[in-house]
Design brief:
With 663 residues, the protein is mainly β. Helices cover 1% and strands 41% of the residues. The chain has 2 helices and 43 strands. The strands form 6 sheets. Strands 2, 5, 6, 7, 9, 12, 13 and 15 form an 8-stranded mixed beta sheet that branches.
Length: 663
């Protein structure tokens, strides 16, 4: 089958990982219903936007009601404060509840509520992206059609079939985000370049149904607006200040981010020599600098950091006498803005009676103690608002300790100190893991995601996925140039010349989690030369111009004599055969492949990825990747080619635009 080329993928929208990192990705959320659920949320503002929601014609009283009627030709205003649950990882919201307008169009197709409009005015020029939110029922017999128009444009109808995956993307680009009485979905409706003071109007209207279903409805759930010029925190993790230098011998004394922001750290009252040590002592009144180069890793997939390692200062306070000096960090900002400060600290993983108290101050005299009990959920939030973010020798947590208005050239001072314990446990410690700062003045607000677009060769089961998009303008298609409609996925048959599609869970490998998938699709061709599966091809058309790194994901077996060769071609270049040669237990191969995950409940495969190229594209330009199995020359019947997809990431992601990452 040397002439066949085919590739199958599933591409997910790039959503940031953590609550702190989602500020700009979530953007500004506009509700159609007020908190009392008795009418429109008429006026609002946020992020440099102002908006008003009102009837297209008529009055509020002629448009909105609280009565559940299917014949009054009015919208019913409803708010689901207590009912919102997140059943998807795509929780694209900052809201604790959500309000919707509901038109019960079902019985006889008679309800026809008036159109409503939301006019959004922008205080800053820029490019903004709008998403339309709507509700869908949870019955396969009900229809939840709705229509919208932008400015004076034609109405566009939306209909979501119930049998589409409730936690995946719809074929029309809609993304499921959570349940609030209804399933709440949102659909990308356009990116718009505006001048300061310009407005965009979105009109929503119900659709009269012609079916007999009495439960049919139109449900309008509001809008979401994103854009680099929103007055919100940058979407990155923010400014990450590492407190220990790369050699673990002392404080990371000073640094700058190249944009005019600077910082310094020092021990208070003593020199470094008198305040720091490399000895694990509980009686020398010094901090022990430590760096965990193999971490951090996340225990639950939410890695709230851009870092690949972590430095901490550790004071072994267990015998009640250790008293290390305070450490002072001064952060000076080039731009005026509102900045939020997070304290990072460590806790142990030993017994529940270990104490890891630490204290902080903004003036060196008034101190605040933070204490996290070991028996609090490892992967949840602490009672004091601390969030678990990673594992790096210790459990690393961070806590929001304040928001500050800073003038250009202004400084935030932070003092951190150990806390002398009065308990008998000799393992008690204070562990200081640095700071994180977010704020609109840190960077340009460009959304740069270190995970990027993830491409999976299968859909939610084991079937081949042909085409789709991320809802923001990026699209992809998968096909065979020989026969575009031929299905390349078969069964676990070693001689059928088809790929075998499998989906199973993954878990983090030794370098952490570089994916948003909790499961991943794997397609295998078993045992060439007996099997020669179809080559497959994917063409990904990027909505945004830029330079992108392309990573190939593939699997390797665990037996030393197995061969898992794979071949690929980028943008129709010469085919390259990839053969992993790595010592047992290694996390990196000499060819640049990196071990990222383990596959399957029995960890039957190692999942590796290798950067296969860097491509610069204009907006609307396409990146093409094709892969094929490789004929093996060994006698092992378990030899395979196992393909696990792609990762396409902005090449600037490693620089964390809008963030400091200081070493």
């Amino acid at each position: 089958m040397s002439g066949k080329i085919r590739m199958g993928f599933m591409l997910f929208a790039c959503l940031a990982i953590s609550a702190a990192a989602w500020a700009e990705t979530r953007g500004v959320e506009i509700q159609p219903v007020n908190t009392e659920t008795n009418g429109f949320e008429k006026n609002g503002s946020g992020g440099g936007l102002t908006w008003i929601t009102e009837p297209v014609s008529g009055t509020d009283a002629e448009t909105v009601t609280t009565v559940d009627s299917n014949s009054d030709n009015l919208w019913r205003a409803r708010r689901f404060g207590a009912e919102k649950t997140v059943t998807s990882s795509k929780k694209v919201t900052n809201l604790d509840n959500i309000g919707v307008l509901e038109s019960k169009t079902g019985t006889g197709g008679t309800e026809d509520a008036p159109a409503v409009k939301t006019t959004v005015t922008f205080s800053q020029a820029g490019v903004y992206t709008l998403f339309f939110r709507y509700g869908d029922g949870r019955s396969s017999t009900e229809r939840y059609d709705i229509q919208y128009a932008v400015n004076d444009g034609d109405f566009q109808e939306i209909h979501l079939d119930y049998d589409e995956a409730t936690e995946g993307d719809s074929v029309d680009g809609s993304v499921y985000i959570f349940v609030a009485g209804f399933e709440i979905w949102e659909k990308f409706i356009g990116s718009f370049e505006v001048n300061a003071g310009d407005s965009i109007t979105i009109i929503a209207d119900d659709i009269i149904q012609d079916g007999p279903g009495s439960g049919d409805r139109s449900v309008y759930a509001g809008l979401r607006v994103t854009g680099a010029n929103l007055d919100l925190d940058p979407p990155s993790m923010g400014l990450e200040v590492d407190i220990v230098n790369a050699d673990t011998t002392g404080l990371e004394k000073a640094g700058a981010d190249g944009a005019g922001n600077t910082w310094t750290s020092e021990t208070v009252g003593v020199s470094d020599a008198d305040g720091l040590t490399t000895v694990d002592s509980g009686t020398d009144n010094k901090w022990r600098p430590r760096r965990f180069g193999a971490g951090p890793t996340a225990l639950h997939g939410l890695l709230l950091t851009n870092r690949t390692d972590f430095g901490v200062l550790e004071s072994k306070i267990g015998d009640g006498t250790e008293d290390a000096p305070p450490v002072h960090t001064a952060l000076t900002f080039a731009k005026a803005g509102t900045y939020t400060l997070y304290l990072r600290y460590g806790t142990g993983r030993g017994s529940a009676n270990e104490r890891y108290d630490i204290q902080y101050s903004f003036d060196g005299s008034t101190w605040y103690i933070t204490r996290l009990n070991y028996d609090e959920a490892l992967e949840g939030d602490a009672w004091d608002g601390a969030e678990y973010i990673s594992l790096a020798g210790f459990e690393i947590w961070e806590r929001n300790i304040g928001t500050f208005d800073v003038a250009a050239g202004g400084t935030i001072d932070v003092y951190v100190d150990d806390v002398i314990q009065d308990g008998p446990n000799t393992n008690d410690r204070s562990v200081y893991a640095g700071l994180r700062v977010t704020g609109g003045g840190l960077g340009g607000g460009q959304v740069v995601d270190a995970i990027g677009y993830e491409v999976d060769p299968l859909n939610g089961s084991s079937a081949f996925l042909r085409d789709g998009g991320d809802g923001k303008g990026t699209t992809w298609r998968t096909f065979s140039p020989i026969d575009e409609f031929e299905e390349p996925i078969g069964t676990d048959d070693r001689f059928d010349s088809f790929w075998w599609g499998r989906r199973d869970t993954i878990e983090a490998g030794p370098l952490g989690i570089k994916t948003r998938f909790s499961s991943i699709g794997l397609i295998e061709s078993g045992g060439p030369p007996d099997e020669d599966a179809y080559p497959i091809r994917s063409e990904i058309t990027l909505a945004e111009a830029g330079t992108y790194d392309v990573w190939l994901r593939y699997a390797n077996g665990l037996a030393a004599d197995n061969r898992y060769d794979i071949q690929y071609s980028l943008n129709d270049g010469d085919p390259v055969v990839l053969r992993l040669v790595a010592e047992e237990g290694a996390t990196k191969s000499a060819d640049g492949s990196i071990l990222q995950h383990f596959y399957g409940a029995t960890r039957s495969r190692e999942l590796w990825e290798k950067k296969i190229g860097t491509v610069t594209v204009t907006a609307g330009e396409t990146i093409a990747v094709q892969i094929d199995d490789v004929e093996q020359d060994g006698p092992n019947a378990d030899d395979r080619t196992a393909y696990a997809g792609l990762r396409v990431v902005n090449a600037n992601a490693s620089s964390s635009i809008g963030a400091w990452e200081l070493f």
